[in-house]
Amino acid sequence: MANELIRDLGGFAGREEYTAAAAGTNGDIVFTGSGKAALVCDTADFAAGETVAVTTDALVRVDSASATTFAAGAAVNYNTSTKLAVASGTAGTSQIGKAEVAKVATELSVLVRLN
Fold first, then answer.
1. The pTM is what?
2. What does the buried/exposed string (b/e) look like for 2-24 if buried means 16 or more CB atoms within 10 Å of the residue's CB?
């Protein structure tokens, strides 16, 4: 699976331009210069140094390991190496938002309200 934009809550006000630190593709989670988590949207594959559109105010379905669980409202972190949502407090990860609904074991993604 891949991360998926469910609802862009901010419209154009929630959109920013992001200069990519590394190559990527539509649906990648990135962190803006201000530290906000963002979803790359409306673009195809991109190279490091390219400027792409991102949304920082959105509901996003983010890939997660089957065994990982979240309560509704729980903080969700992101591991940029594995590209998976992980529990808050996991070393080497950064918070991307809160779980919109609970995620139980066996589900492969979590619905996250960014930031």
1. 0.90
2. ebebeebeeeeebbbebebeeeb
